[in-house]
Task: structure prediction
Amino acid sequence: MKIGVIGGGQLGRMLALAGTPLGMNFAFLDPAPDACAAALGEHLRADYSDPDHLRQLADEVDLVTFEFESVPAETVAFLSQFVPVYPCAESLRIARDRWFEKSLFKDLGIPTPAFANVLDQADLDHAVIEIGLPAVLKTRTLGYDGKGQKVLRKPEDVVGAFAELGSVPCILEGFVPFSGEVSLVAVRGRDGETRFYPLVHNTHVNGILNLSVASSNHPLQALAEDYVGRVLKQLDYVGVLAFEFFEVDGGLKANEIAPRVHNSGHWTIEGAECSQFENHLRAVAGLPLGSTAKVGESAMLNFIGSVPPVDKVVAIDDCHLHHYGKAFKAGRKVGHATLRSKDLATLQARIKDVEALIEG
Amino acid sequence: MKIGVIGGGQLGRMLALAGTPLGMNFAFLDPAPDACAAALGEHLRADYSDPDHLRQLADEVDLVTFEFESVPAETVAFLSQFVPVYPCAESLRIARDRWFEKSLFKDLGIPTPAFANVLDQADLDHAVIEIGLPAVLKTRTLGYDGKGQKVLRKPEDVVGAFAELGSVPCILEGFVPFSGEVSLVAVRGRDGETRFYPLVHNTHVNGILNLSVASSNHPLQALAEDYVGRVLKQLDYVGVLAFEFFEVDGGLKANEIAPRVHNSGHWTIEGAECSQFENHLRAVAGLPLGSTAKVGESAMLNFIGSVPPVDKVVAIDDCHLHHYGKAFKAGRKVGHATLRSKDLATLQARIKDVEALIEG
Result:
């Protein structure tokens, strides 16, 4: 079976590493000459809306999937004429636009911070009155890793904020005094079977995910599964979906969804019986889903900007390096380490070992 | 770091799957147009003794390693002029020739079945008198999976046996009434650090490995480590080496060594903290070695001739498919399943599940 992937970054690379042992081959559509997934499959180097290359991809592969959600709607529609596409166009339409996304949460009764659609400065002024300050102005599309957003704390911050974010459609979100951020990675098969990984505690630094720690028997697991299950069912979703929540007053408020394998699920490569990458491929290929159970206690630390010396990373017990083969650049995710330890105390010690390398 | 691999079969493929997350790139020299490792790296399609392509490989890579031992000595000597080669030429010289191999065991005080060098039929006749029947006549080089050998039970079997095996240099081995076959996979770093995986019980069918089960606290572990350690030290070996033994009267008799990652170590992909593939790459690259400890109870079943339907394989709990992406052909190793279970009873049940698929 040949899988077409829109995007050829590290997520595509890890999909190929998981799918090759299942007998799958891969083709990646990515305009970047140095797309790091290209080492593991065919690289169609073209723009995401290039019809000739999209057609070529559709002709070559058995199905198409995505490693990022900001794919133009026309790309998805075009591909869908010729080849099965998972997750479906509607899932991508919702997930790539914060307004559609939050509106879906609201429609499904999933708690989420107060929000308002902001199409111009007047909308923003009005929304600030309604929602209050502090609040966060976010572009509806194309935001990631803290990009495309601005925290508004004082009335002066509101002035000209819409223009500052590029005068593109935005939403204003009420600022939530959260005690923590958690994510739930879920997978749903073509037949509707759904499985959930354990909730993961996430820590961000400068808006970029830094550390994810998989939980055991988290008291909010069942609630999170209920919320995520509603979205998966509503979208008739196929594949892996990650759902980020704020922990607020012992409950959850929905932040956002990613219709793809997700950074907060990278620990599953060694830390779960079947990784998010393999499970995504199983789902889109119509195969039975794999176990989402943990193997030991597990965490993931991102390497941002550079990967520490490989000999030092692999010298740490319980540590598994995942180097993305990308050029080092400030703020860029270039690798991660999965830790898999026998108990939490050991895991916490190993996390410190890796952190010391990153800081060193 | 770019690694050159002589051979582009499934062992090369699994080396690349293990090395890519370490940030390594791969080039495979293999004359076969459909070499299955080629999906994961550059494919230099040329004969193993083609000097132009060997030179190209040496120029492109940081070091060269092997996925099979029957590499011409001149190939190794040629490459060694330009690039580090691991394991060393002497290790390959010994391991690819049963006469040198057995002689080394004898020199190092490692028990091995009685053996004699057989360069013509007269040698064979003489050796049969000395060693007795039953005995096994084996070609000194190029034998694998039961090929290149003939069991001699009666005096009539001896007549013309040397010609039957092609009139090439052979050894005669005394037949050993063994109670089981075990192998020890070891890894030795450039600095001499050595680690051993748990002993593995192997079952062969028609001379081809069928099932490997990793042991826990095997009473012969320390003895096997002693024997294997002697060979590793003598050869100043770098990389993974597999050592096959017969279990005889509660002791071990050396059968053969393979100077490479080995089929009886495939279970380590999921079943050990660090797989034999990653540890081989760590060793040859001069990185610290990884833990050889087991994760749960583990076994490996080969798929020979064909891989059962993928949906049925992955539906088995605890089962991890490794499809080699090779054309199916009778007698050919085309994939394997690793089982990793929480206890031995569960593992035994899962082995039966996979066996039922293979037979079905």
